């Protein structure tokens, strides 16, 4: 019986904790990365293939670690303020690509609620890892062993 | 200049406020609906067509207002606890229907973050309206004029 309870606990996660963890990780990144310009033209380990393509093509939208650094800080500001820009162009494009979601909003708002809640939790985990990755790479660049 | 600033303010919305507004609306619904069983077999105004189909078919998943009442309370509990059930079957089905989102998670986590944040805000507004609708309909049933 106790084992079943433990399982239930393990299968639950808290959005608020994920948001706080993200803020703390970005703060740590900011305090470590004292010269953000050193991150320019440094590719993320995950994006190596993409980055190689970028160097052979022009006008590509590949991000270096400096772009990630700025993006992670911008997301942190949104997380901490809780403010949503309703006319955000990026999101508009995103929504246009996901037109299939709209009819479902009417059909099952509870499922849509869980979908977005879980999605937000998942993307926060992903961004937290990216922020840790930027910090680790920066320490690597300036020669500090982890 | 001031007009541009006002526009920016109008185009921003706060998720935290939307969540609080939802909790307050559900609390009001709970305090008004003293006999929830009166909501059984009462269709939502929005679902009239669906409800008529249900009465002619068997095994359909149309919701009456009592189902909505229970669903709105369940969502409120999740909102207030902030806990996400990671093995939720409904969400799993939902995610399976939206496989297109997964490659985008890797491609642009910032856009995905805004997509889910905005989506959550939007669905909270929708559920708040549904909760107000249940309260109004209940008052209508017991003969209280709004």
From TrEMBL, chains A, B:
Main localization category: cytoplasm
Q: Does the keyword Nucleotide-binding apply?
A: no
From which domain of life does this come? Eukaryota
Q: What is this protein called?
A: Thyroid hormone-inducible hepatic protein
Write the record's keywords in alphabetical order, separated by commas.
Cytoplasm, Nucleus
InterPro entries given for it? Lipogen_MT_Stabilize_sf, Spot_14
| Example of a GO cellular component annotation carried by this entry | nucleus
Subcellular location per the Swiss-Prot or TrEMBL entry: Cytoplasm; Nucleus
Q: Which Pfam families match?
A: Spot_14 (PF07084)
Q: Which organism is it from?
A: Salvelinus namaycush
Family (UniProt) = Belongs to the SPOT14 family.
Report the record's Gene Ontology biological process terms: regulation of lipid biosynthetic process
């Amino acid at each position: 019986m106790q084992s079943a309870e433990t399982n239930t606990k393990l299968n639950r996660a808290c959005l608020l904790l994920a948001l706080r963890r993200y803020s703390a990780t970005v703060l740590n990144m900011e305090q470590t990365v004292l010269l953000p310009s050193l991150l320019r033209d440094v590719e993320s380990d995950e994006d190596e293939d993409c980055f190689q393509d970028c160097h052979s093509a022009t006008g590509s939208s590949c991000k270096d670690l400096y772009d990630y650094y700025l993006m992670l800080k911008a997301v942190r500001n949104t997380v901490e303020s809780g403010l949503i820009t309703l006319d955000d162009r990026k999101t508009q494009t995103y929504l246009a690509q996901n037109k299939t979601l709209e009819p479902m909003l009417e059909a099952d708002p509870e499922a849509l609620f869980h979908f977005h809640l879980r999605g937000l939790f998942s993307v926060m985990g992903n961004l937290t890892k990216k922020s840790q990755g930027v910090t680790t790479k920066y320490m690597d660049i300036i020669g500090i062993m982890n």
